[in-house]
Each structure stands twice: as structure tokens, then as C-alpha cells.
Amino acid sequence: MSRDVVLQQLDERSAAYQAEAERLRAEADRITELLEVCEAELGRLVTARQVVGELPAVHTAAAVPDQSPIPAPRTGSARMREHGQAAAASFAEQVLRVLAGHAGPVRCRRVAEGLGLEITARNVERVRQRLKKAVAAGVVVQTPGGLFTLARVPAAAGG
């Protein structure tokens, strides 16, 4: 190999490593930003836990009236449609209940595990789609890293 060929190859490798180093720096900056968001949320949750922990314990038996109306008799397809809607609502409630059981943002896979689902791409994607619907409804917040957490409930004014 001639000296010029070796120098050209060294220049090419140097340029490739320079580009990779720049890409990794950008990724490190992105990860640093995500870490700051996560740490800020963690600090907020720790503070909230401390404040709630200092409140006096109140034990009330909250009587929740049965709000479901007595359904009218339906024919086959309408009944199956209602059953499908009820199953979807039930699944959505289960997803939110599992999400509420976590102190911070979690991945869809963790929610699927909490639901007792077999961890398959289909089940994780099903949970992800339900969470995205909840994000659109304002019930759940999705972090920049693709994690999900319950949305903050605004404090009641007055007192």
C-alpha cells in the first residue's frame, strides 16, 4: 500500500469517528435532558408523598352508588357491541389502576406485566394504544422518553 492510500484511509476513518462522536454527544445531551425531567418528576412525587404523609389519616367509608342503569333487553348484535364496549372500558380502567400503582413514569411493558398479561408485542402494543387514548383524553401524560404516568389532578380552589 502506498503512503497516499494509507493517509486517505486514515482520513476516512477519522471523519467517520468524528461523526460518530458528534452523534454520541447529541445522544448524551438528549439523555441528560430526559434524566433532568425524570429527576424533577421524582422530586415532585417525593414532595407530594411527604405532604400527603403529614395529613391526618381520615377513614371514611365512601359509598359509591351503583351508577349503571338497568339495561333494556337487546338483540344479538347490539348486545355483542355493548359487551365489547364494556370490556374495553374495563380494560381501560385496569390499565389506569395499574398505572396509578406506580410512583413514577413507567413503560408499557411494566403496565402489561401489572395486568398479568403475557409479554408479547401484541399485548404491549394493546396497552400502549390504550395509554395513548388516555393521553388524548388528558388522563395520562406521556414523557419524552415514551414513559407514561397519570396526569396531575388540579388542586381544588377555596377552602
Protein model, in words:
The chain is elongated. By secondary structure, the protein is mainly alpha-helical. The N and C termini lie far apart (84 Å). Among the domains are: 29 residues; 49 residues, no CATH class. The chain contains four helices and two strands; from the N terminus they run H-H-H-H-E-E. About 9% of the residues have low confidence. Strand 1 and strand 2 form a beta hairpin. Helix 2 packs across helix 4 and helix 3 packs across helix 4. A two-stranded antiparallel ribbon has the order 1-2.
Describe the structure in brief.
With about 160 residues, the protein is mostly helical. The chain contains 4 helices and 2 strands; from the N terminus they run H-H-H-H-E-E.
Percent in helix: 55-70%
Q: Using DSSP, what is the number of strands?
A: 2
Number of helices, where a helix is a run of at least 4 consecutive DSSP H or I residues: 4
In the sheet with the most strands, the strands line up as: 1-2
The secondary-structure element order is HHHHEE
Largest sheet: 2 strands, antiparallel
Radius of gyration, taken over Cα atoms and rounded to an integer in Å: 25 Å
Mean pLDDT: 80
**Structural class of the secondary elements?**
mainly alpha
Beta content comes to under 5%
N→C terminal distance:
84 Å
Which ranges are low-confidence, i.e. pLDDT below 50, for 5 or more consecutive residues?
60-74
- The shape is elongated
